[in-house]
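## Example pair
The file below holds two records. Each record gives the amino-acid sequence first, followed by its structure token line.
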Amino acid sequence: MSPYLAAEDLSMFGHDPWWLVVIKAVFCFAFLMVTVLFSIVWERKVVAWMQLRIGPNRHGPWGMLQSLADGVKLMLKEDLIVKRADKVVYILAPIVAAIPAFMAIAVIPFGPAGNEISIFGHRTTMQLTDLPIAMLYILAVASVGIYGIVLAGWSSGSTYPLLGGLRSCAQMISYEIAMGAAFASVFLYSGSMSTSRIVEAQHDRWYILLLPVSFIIYIVTMVGETNRAPFDMPESEGDLVGGFNTEYSSIKFAMFMLAEYVNMVTVSAVSTTLFLGGWRAPWPISTVWEGANHGWWPLLWFVIKVQLLLFFFIWLRGTLPRVRYDQLMKLGWKVLIPVSVVWLMLVATVRALRNENYGFADIALYVAGGVLALLLVSFVIDMFRAKAKEAERPAEEPAAFDPMAGGFPVPPLPGQTLPPVPRRRSRRERELIVSGGPDTVSDGSSDGKEASDG
């Protein structure tokens, strides 16, 4: 039996006094809030640096209090409620969107479970709590946040916020499927859904090296899950005015903005836990310094990794343009989900062979043979499919394109072309026509006929 499948021991959790649990919960809340305040300033400064702009430089030293000033400004703005809104749902939607964003941090380990720290004389772990199904808990609370966005668009009583909410719901659900498959690969390798156990299983090698495809899939899906550029479809100003939060103002709008940035921190923390060794020190430091993973030092390594992933979010926003919605959904359903499922089957096969004590050479041979067989089958299928399409292609020419079909202008379909645009006459030709010049004869006008008769 694989050592990863042994019974989990989470007895170090659940024995803290109530006041210590409150302190740890307040720490998790403060960690998220401070990281969000820093991330907003950092994003504005980094994007300004990328685009050769000044950026915030007025509020506080070097503009470091800009995000705090923005929060105060939003709180002091007039709080409006549109006339056609469902007031109860309209007010609850920002709360439903924001609260689940804070809940996921409860099971994220900031330090090793076996190395307890002392707080006011009590020994405790650097983690609020842990569960045997902690990763399923994270997926569950992340799914609840979608309801806040959908209800915000629906309760506004306006068309464009409703469209933004529906687009956001479709996008987040689509990308959560591939995200769950990426999680499943980690579960197979670690043999656990507990976050602390997943980090402990990476003591010799991080999963970014063992499961690189899962890491790439999760990086893409976490950008789509948080509605960040280039996947910020729900907030596409050119298409939907402002997205699901168009009719919101003041503190309720600030809560949607807070939920987005808290989700950024949460998914970065999850990525650090699953693929980047969690609280563990990077390779050169961990080998040279024995105390790098003891005491309060794991908190430093964890924060650095989270900040690097937040910089990745900012880098994407300042680099890539927004994609079209059909490209976004095609990437989620036709690329990420099939790739994640195939990769999951491959990882499951490798783990099953390892549990049967097969050698690395035998596993590589079996996997390579399976991949080649799959490629050969797909090539044969594509070849027969191409021949079938050639046989079914009609011999007659397609119908002419009517740009005003039904009385409204419509774009051409694939394979259709626009009719030729009539050539505009030059200014000299128009002057000759008006003055009765020689061009009137070739045009067949009445003046030309009279001239020819004379």
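Second record, same layout:
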Amino acid sequence: MDTHSKNSNHSYFASTGTLNNQLADIHQRLRVAAPEIDRISFALYDDENDHLKTYADSTFHGFELMHYEFPLSELPTLKICSETGECRYLGDIPNQLNAKYPHTKWLIEQGYHSSLAVPVFQNKRFIGFIFLNSCKQHLFNESITESLKPFLDIIRFIVTSEYDLVHSLIDSASLVHSQSREHWQESSEHKERISRYAKVIALEVAHVYELDDEIIENIALFSKCHDIGKLSVPASLLTKSSSLGNEERDQLKDHVEKGVEMINQIIEEIGSPDHPCVSVLKEIVAYHHEFLDGSGYPYGLTQEDIPISARIITVANVFDALTSHRPYKQAWSVPFALLELEKMVANGKLDKHCVNGLRYHQEYLKRVIEAYPEPDPKDRPEHH
């Protein structure tokens, strides 16, 4: 990793807030120059599903569209913009867009008439759209866009910088992982399942814990790094078919603090950015084995001291452990595993909202388990 270039890229994060907060600040400044602009938002592109997803919004204390995604392939004009890099202009939203789509209906309900969509690229890769909306008709055209260029450049910069930071953290963790082949085998499907469970739970508890789309996305992505400290544990211990002795159990528990050390090192290597997403990553790695009653490890935290990001991963992790084949046990069915989680809620260990979040999506959970099955221990390379 080129430490110097990473340092310079991320050093400006020293005092920034979330993308929602930054868009709100820019919006305030922009309204001095262009008072007719009523909203700035960024929709993130998910290339795995070809979906545009709500991510950040300058009006996030108001009536923002949240927790919503839609196939880009069904938005032909935006699809073309994502390929050509051209902007899209709308001046009469109620008559130009299909009102059967929830996002269009929402825009019309808010009284928006004009829209400017600016595609955003990171290293030539399309990552999403900046949207500017106005209640005034026919506000945007090429000359207005040119006059807004300084603001659009700032928005593009903060969007791509945050995207770059999040993915630098993920890529650095993946690189560390990939250097240990036996651990990589051990954990790749597990990471994919955990990420999907975490997303489902985060979306379900968003209204309870006031999670915005930016945080939900961070939790889903950074959940893949939760077990990075297990790289410090011999793979033979992780795949052991008999129960562990006390010393081995302690060695396994040490992986959390080792993980914190590894993540801190990665953060330092990319310039120690002081950005809210970095806190989410640290919380997940440090606290994903804590229980609400204080019986977890390594810190014995209780209740409110355990951040919601870590509570989500704890529930996802316990569910995954129960529903995966292990050398020493058969996988449990989804309903059976959920019953066990509910017992843990009753015993004061797990967050009930997080467990409910899984219960509402049992068919989806089954599909995830089928799509990312745990490799049978007998099929691992060392057995051939």
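Notes on the second record: The chain is about 55% helix and 10% strand. The beta strands are 37-46, 51-57, 69-71, 88-90, 114-122, 125-134.
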